[in-house]
Amino acid sequence: QVQLVESGGGLVQPGGSLRLACTALGVTVNSCGMDWYRQAEGMRREWISSISMYGRTNYADSVKGRFTISKDDARDTVYLQMNSLKPEDTAMYFCTTDSCDDRRLNNYWGQGTQVTVSS
User: Fold this and answer.
1) Which residues contact residue 114 at a Cβ distance below 8 angstroms, ignoring those fewer than 6 apart?
2) What is the CB neighbour count within 10 angstroms for residue 57?
């Protein structure tokens, strides 16, 4: 059974940093691409970053230059380092599987971790 567990969210002041983690159970991150999405209250879910199974990364314009996605295959964990945080980054952050070798493993989602940027 596939399970994704996000952690690392919290309350941070504008300009601060957080590192989110997404630990995968039942799937290895070296066999899937992994994406981060976020959803602010009352807003649509927004894709913000992805990392392929080979380590290729992509970012939404809204986070490019501030956020960095990475992964540790040995720990089956994907990270999202978030720097220079802004109030508009406040949202629930989710990770998901994508482009897996086994298509049946695509589109699993974690429960999310809340990030609040406020002074």
Assistant:
1) 9, 10, 91, 92, 93
2) 13
Minimal CA–CA distance to 67: which of 41, 93, 44?
A: 93
Map tokens 């998901």 to a residue. 96
pLDDT digits (tens), the chain, 119 positions: 899 999 999 999 999 999 999 999 999 989 999 999 999 999 999 999 999 999 999 999 999 999 999 999 999 999 999 999 999 999 999 999 999 999 999 999 999 999 999 99
Q: Which helix (H) or strand (E) holds 79?
A: strand 77-82
Interatomic CA distance for residues 98 and 24, integer angstroms = 13
- Rounded Cα distance, 9 and 61, in Å: 21
Q: Is the dihedral of CA 94, 98, 100, 106 positive or negative?
A: positive
Rg (CA), the chain: 13
Encoded tokens for 76: 């089956």
